[in-house]
Amino acid sequence: MDKLRKHIEEVTPLTDDEFEHIKTFFTLKRVKKHQYLSQEGDEAKFEYLILSGIFRMFHLDGDGKEHIVQFAGENWWMADYQAYFKAKKADLYITCMEDAEVLCLTLEGREKLSAEMHKMEHFFRVKLTNGFVALQRRIISLLAGNPQQRYEEFGRLYPHLMQQIPKKYIAEYLGVSRETLSRLYAK
């Protein structure tokens, strides 16, 4: 739980009593490589804070092709947010790419924490805002960037992921073939 406290205190300071209360809302889960946190059709009960490991979120189209929406590593939050916030069935898959640990938070817990503690409402708002900014940047990159630009931006923003994620998944995320990615790596 030390990682959780450090993570929150990057945004807002906490007293020991405040943190003792906050941590009662989280549940630790250990996840094995290739295990799913969520699959299409599941109830999205949790938002996850990644303590260790790397996760891949993707959508399967009608032809069974994967479309990677997001990777998440340590200190990133991840959920099928449409399902989580709107109480709908999940459309996205979340799978573990290496053994990992996550903290699970229910929407009810998140709402209660936000109502009880202004600091936590502020914390969640900052994290949600950062997520929206990253999503907007990704959409613009996909719409307006060429493969070279997308590759360079991914490497600049996520250098640690470039080394840890198999190239086939990076290619899918960037929307390029594995051959194109190989050419980009060679440059």
From TrEMBL:
- UniProt xrefs under CDD domains: CAP_ED
- InterPro entries referenced in this protein's UniProt entry, alphabetically: cNMP-bd_dom, cNMP-bd_dom_sf, RmlC-like_jellyroll
Record domain Cyclic nucleotide-binding: where? 29-109
Tell me the protein's name.
Answer: Crp/Fnr family transcriptional regulator
What organism does the record attribute this protein to? Mucilaginibacter celer
